[in-house]
Amino acid sequence: MPFKLCLNTSTIRPQPLLEKIRLASEAGFEGIELWLNDIYEHVGRGGEVSDVEKALADHGLMVPCMIAIRGWGEASELEYPLML
Question: Gene3D superfamilies given for it (predicted)?
Answer without folding.
Answer: Divalent-metal-dependent TIM barrel enzymes
